[in-house]
Amino acid sequence: MEPKVCVVTGVGPGTGTALARRFAADGYRVALLARDAERLEKLAAELPGSAAFPVDLADLDALRASLAELRGRLGAPSVLLHNAVAGGFGSFESVTSEALEQRFRVNVTSLLVLAQELAPAMVAAGQGAIVVTGNTSAWRGKANFAGFAPTKAAQRILAESLARSLGPKGVHVAYVVIDAVIDVPWTREAFADKPDDFFAQPAGIADAVHHVAHQERSAWTFELDLRPFGESW
Question: What is the pTM of this model?
């Protein structure tokens, strides 16, 4: 049998790394995509059969080239996890059009390119999964998220469009809303007064994503929201 291949974008120190570890533990060869080459190479060395593909997802031509390279090295992926995110705070008065467009390219346009490049092989195989990690900004636009929430809302809608197109062809598309502060070093510093239970653990998120990506096809989830047990919502 050909080895299973999973693509993870946005492999940072939190959710991205946890996703890579979870799928590698299930026997996947993991293609690691992010800008930090040193981090990717270090993680790839820990995950048998995996490989690092340093790339800025905002550079769509470079992204296409990286996807062609990873298909040549690892084979056609059966799972895509789009976890990359570009964000920032700011009201509509302070957000620049350039910043909004760059975030849109990372959060939305790169998802379109990823689907265009990787979904055809999944359709040909009659199976596959595309899971996008989102957050609460996909649901509402708060005043200080004017340069970010529009991109996450568009990302969710694009994922829904993909799901409606690809689902009948055997490819499961899902959107996971993380309604929480994820436990990574910078959030621990920013929320130093919060207890451990305040944070969502990357490993727990990865377990949920892995489950969604492997659901039996008669009971697929499109949208799943995750939050710590004590979160007010």
Answer: 0.95
Q: How many domains does the chain have?
A: 1
CATH number reported for the structural domain that contains residue 17 in this entry: 3.40.50.720
- For 98-140, what is each residue's pLDDT tens digit? 989 999 999 999 999 999 999 999 999 999 999 999 998 888 8
**Three-state DSSP string of the chain:** CCCCEEEEECCCCCHHHHHHHHHHHCCCEEEEEECCHHHHHHHHHHCCCCEEEECCCCCHHHHHHHHHHHHHHHCCCCEEEECCCCCCCECCCCCCHHHHHHHHHHHHHHHHHHHHHHHHHHHHHCCEEEEEEEEHHHCCCCCCECCCHHHHHHHHHHHHHHHHHHHHHCEEEEEEEECCEECCHHHHHHCCCCCHHHEECHHHHHHHHHHHHCCCCCCCCCEEEECCCCCCC
Domain containing 214 equals 5-226
**Identity of the residue numbered 166:** L
Distance of CA 185 to the CA centre of its chain: 19
Angle value at C-alpha 140, between 135 and 141, nearest 5 degrees: 105
In a domain, 233, yes or no: no
**What is the rounded distance in angstroms from the CA atom of residue 6 to the CA atom of residue 80?**
6
